[in-house]
Amino acid sequence: MAVALILVLIAVGSVAFHLWSPWWWTPIASNWSYIDSTLVMTFWITGAVFVAVVLFMAYCIFRFRHRQGQRAHYEPESKRLELWLTVITGVGVAAMLTPGLFVWRAFITVPEDATDIEVLGQQWQWSFRLPGPDGKLGTSDIRLISPENPLGISRDDPSGQDDVIVEGGELRLPIGKPVKALLRSVDVIHNFYVPEMRAKMDLVPGQISYIWFTPTRTGTFEILCAELCGLGHPQMRGTVIVQEQKDYQAWLQEQMSRSFARLMPQAQ
Amino acid sequence: MGSILIFLSALLIIGAWWLSKQGLMSKPWLEQGVATNWPPAENTSPATARMGLRVFLAVVGSLFALFISAYAIRMQLPDWRSLPLPRILWLNTGMLILGSLALQGARKSARLGKEDELKFGLLAATVATLAFLSGQLLAWRQLTAEGYLLASNSANAFFYVLTGIHGLHILGGLAALGRTTARAWQGTGLERLQLSVDLCAIYWHFLLFIWFVLLSVLTGWAENVIDICRQLLS
Amino acid sequence: MTDVPLDPIGAAHAPVIDDVELYHPHSWVTKYVFSQDAKIIAIQYSFVALSVGLIALVLSWLMRLQLGFPGVFSFIDANAYYQFITMHGMMMVVYVLTALFLGGFGNYLIPLMVGARDMVFPYVNMLSFWIYLLAVLILVASFFAPGGPTGAGWTLYPPQAITSGTPGGQDWGIILMLVSLMVFIIGFTMGGLNYVVTVLQGRARGMTLMRMPLTVWGIFTASFMALLAFPALFVGAVMMLFDRALGTSFFMPAIVEMGQPLDRNGGSPLLFQHLFWFFGHPEVYIVALPAFGIVSDLISTHARRNIFGYRMMVWALLAIGALSFVVWAHHMYVSGMNPYFGFFFATTTLIIAIPTAIKVYNWVLTLWRGDIHLNVPMLFALAFIVTFVNGGLTGLFLGNVVVDVPLSDTMFVVAHFHMVMGVAPILVIFGAIYHWYPKVTGRMLNDTLGKLHFWITFLGAYAIFFPMHYLGLMGVPRRYYEIGDMAFVPPSAHTLNAFITIVALIVGATQLAFVFNLFWSLRHGRPAGGNPWRATTLEWQTPETPPPHGNWGKNVPTVYRWAYDYSVPGAAEDFIPQNQPNAQAASGSAHG
Q1: ipTM score of complex
Q2: Is the pTM value of this prediction over 0.90?
């Protein structure tokens, strides 16, 4: 009796917690609302299964609990029932997987007009590089890193000369314009994570990974590192500021004084 | 991770074939009484030992398949510089083949009850295998002397690690072979020896096979195969 | 059909290990210390694994204290915190759960359940335990090594696992961890060979595969998987050890560490992740499959009903075992690997949900129209279903590649895997201990203490891990020494963290009641008799309880039926032991 009741309470309580607890995701600020929809749909399907299974258990425990003289029903298997349950499960799984795969394809297919930016992680801070007026990032190599050239940008590549470098500070992005973030690490694996953008990807030393997103809301958002990177992991924070196009352009003009070539005049 | 997946698929086929003979589709609740097909007649102590060895070889196979998977992934990175294989490896290969052949001979003599030939076979196998191991050590020394150090390139590191792990397995086998040889000299009965010799022979053949695979990977003969493997999820 | 007692030596169908071949111990030391009796080895394995579990429990307390009350406990600095989470994770996954299910339950139950006198290679089996103990000692030794244990997280991802920004990375911690894992794998291989070959070759007359209890199926499949999957960890450990100690570049690319270029070149950190998860994902099922098997038998026995759809259960077990080798990269969706793999691994991962769901349906359908005795083992089995379904369903979030993106590396993942491979299997372990303790010791565990232990553990664990999902959904990353100020985290989340910590302390303390029960009942428990649960499987039919070395006295049992003849219409009792030839006979004759 008590056991059945507690199981009912668990099922009902879990749903109530889901619906009314104050803890939910932070409002989205990027184009990935599809991810949110897929997630919500998964919540509904899995939640229904959970409640159904637990309530059915509670019913069985109440209805078929041991009483004097009771004997269990003998039935080794029921092919029909098992087949039906398999088919229904398969349909449920497909219902979650199919939209998931479509959204994933969008997630890894970068639109043509995306601006390349670079995010560079190191223990334990973020640096960024934005393309200058030519819209292109110069090549880089980890072996070129030095105190004067902390990002290891190649001096011989002309497209790198006008790159804007933001070290350990804030990343600014214009609203409504897709960005492709090229992710690079100089030491260990980090992970570029902005909860409001719903996007997340590892920065792996020795290779360049990427994500893309379009900011859809102005404001200041936190960048976290989401892959254990040593003692300073929780302190590895940054900010991304999404601005209106004209504010962004004004800021970018200001930053031209901090282009790679200006910072390293000997490179000329 | 192609090579490990191919290896596991082979195991899966063997497993599925074996299970298909075990009445997996039967309805056990309808069948009462002593099953006539269990245990099979070959369910004896030697059969158990052979089964144990076979399962162990599956584990060893999985270990090497994984090393080769790692090799295949690592070798496509730009810093990879293949190293020239020392000539002595061919001599070593010959020695390992001799060891395997000698054990096969010993196996046959044990079955036929020819004690002297059995002793000779065991001894020859031990000597040939020791020659293989010393040859491998010489190959290491030669490479080190030529400057192909462990840490200087991953191709070198893989060479040392693969040959080292293979050598350790041979060394473990030698311990068993040594015990068997000692027992042969102490005059243990042929029936009991027969099983030990059998197990040693199977193990040697398997490690010889692994050595051929390693050799084909290290020399680059297997380049095409590795390319195909690499396409599979790595 | 009559029961023909087998001649232990000369019969055509003699079991593999005859009485004459068994090693007979001569002294206390060979009987109880260097024992070759699988049952003693099982107790040794379980004792060591449970002790490691208690250490891991204390570590979890310490890290919860930090998370719930950041900054209050000055002795938990970031260094110590990362060492605690790493050791807690590795200990629980490998040294507790794997060792307990396979080394503990496998050793005890396989020979008894298939009607063998012992494991087929008893000497190797003994070595397996001592090598396991050595691995544990090496692991624990890292607490006392200079620099302390490694703090790389249990996943040990390079380069950070072997660089100076991580506790133990440039000290002894990581070396001892890798060596300990390699030793463990060697020891496990010895044990695993025994478990697999005993099932293949050591079964009693009449014990066909399809008559085996699902416990044996689960442990057998898991052992086989472990034998094939652990080499991946071994390969990764060897290569990382070389990278750390000998300066090779298997996993180490050219990096600049704290402004200093390291003399490494070209290695691939992702290669390690592939190797690690090639072991790591099957490992989840290596823990889960024995739990699946055991829980099937608990539910069937205590609901007095055959396990529903036995054949489907066996097929599902095998399907899960095979599929679990092609899902590993779902741990790596955001690792920077080729993004197109996401399609393949999301599909395989969600497909594996189907056989798993079938198992859940069959468990609850076994309850349907049963005769449910709510004994302590049954309560644990029911609680397993609740937590496993919960944790399994959140697995569908993380397996579906794009849904994983926002949730990956957050507390959602922590909550998910604790629910599904922490809480759920541990509830099964508790249930199994309450169930088989009478066979091991001849006495019942105390029921009142058992129920107290059950309710606090189950409800507490659910209250810890269910709300934790929502912290992750909010975006709180895992492996953070302190959350600090995050704009998107409301202050109420800190209250939730404190709540979780308090519940964790209570649940942890309750385990002391269980430990007390284990020792107290050894002397004061109610005498159990040979078959207190009126179960059908062979281990309950031994002539003596606890069973002596050799298990069966003079005659090895002959098996006449499958393991689930409960409540058969027309039978005198509501269970028919597997070794009873005639359904009508009184069951009392089959056991002593």
Answers
A1: 0.94
A2: yes
